[in-house]
Write a structure and sequence with these properties.
The structure holds 2 protein chains of 2 kinds. Helices cover about 0% and strands about 55% of the residues of chain A. Chain A starts with a strand and ends with a strand. By secondary structure, chain A is mainly β. In chain A, the strands form 2 sheets. In chain A, strands 2, 4, 5, 6, 9, 10 and 11 form a 7-stranded mixed sheet that branches. Chain A has a 4-stranded antiparallel sheet with strand order 1-3-8-7, with no helix packed on it. Chain B contains no helices and 11 strands. The termini of chain B are far apart. Chain B is an all-beta fold. Classes of the chains: A mainly beta, B mainly beta. Chains A and B meet through strand 4, strand 5, strand 6, strand 9 and strand 10 of A and strand 5 and strand 10 of B.
Chain lengths: ~110, ~110
């Protein structure tokens, strides 16, 4: 059974650009959540989607957005990139709300 | 004060030792995760629990809802257990908004 797949693995962008990250969940998992990890702030929750609807959102500016498609694949978009957006972005999927999370390997974003 | 506090921040142990990592939280929660992150970034969910105790191999996780405290125990530790262990809770009764601790870096020496 394939795990959670995130693409791309590494990304380099410049300030002001926008970026789209992709996450394919485990087959049968309808929930996809996104997280940002930095050395200073640690892991922080961005948002969660379930059946194409955003169910929860963390405390991030509106430049961070996401969506989920009918096949449960999810994308995260960050517009007008800032240096502080450099981070490891992780997604996770789960079958239901009382089940364990399965994480992808992450996308390492560097903003120059 | 962070809503999720872990202790210790760093832990060095000799192979075979019994290890305990603690997590205290200040928010009302619906469930708690223990996560393991190896160098390179990959995260594995070890346990999700909302009451009592769970065991998987050499790992044991307990939670006391009244005291807002959880512990992760590793019996007969091994160098391959070296990793960062992170406690995360679903705060405010929400089943989605995870709040993370800063993590405990464990190093097990042979």
């Amino acid at each position: 059974k394939a795990g959670v797949t995130q693409t791309p693995r590494y990304l380099i962008k410049t300030r002001g650009q926008q970026v789209t990250l992709s996450c394919s969940p485990i087959s049968g998992h309808r929930s996809v959540s996104w997280y940002q990890q930095t050395p200073g702030q640690g892991l922080q929750f961005l948002f969660e989607y379930f059946s194409e609807t955003q169910r929860n959102k963390g405390n991030f500016p509106g430049r961070f957005s996401g969506r989920q498609f009918s096949n449960s694949r999810s994308e995260m978009n960050v517009s007008t990139l800032e240096l502080g957006d450099s981070a490891l972005y992780l997604c996770a999927s789960r079958r239901g709300f009382d089940e364990k999370l399965f994480f992808g390997s992450g996308t390492q974003l560097s903003v120059l | 004060k962070n809503e999720v506090e872990q202790s210790p921040q760093n832990l060095t142990a000799q192979e075979g030792e019994f290890i305990t990592i603690n997590c205290s939280y200040s928010v009302g929660i619906s469930a708690l995760h223990w996560l393991q992150q190896h160098p390179g970034g990959g995260i594995v969910s070890l346990f999700m629990l909302s009451s009592g105790k769970k065991k998987h191999g050499r790992l044991i996780a307990t939670i006391n809802i009244q005291e807002k405290h959880s512990s992760l125990h590793i019996t007969a530790s091994h160098p391959r257990d070296s990793a960062v262990y992170i406690c995360a809770v679903y705060g405010g009764g929400s089943q989605g908004n995870l709040i993370f601790g800063k993590g405990t870096k464990l190093s097990v020496k042979p």
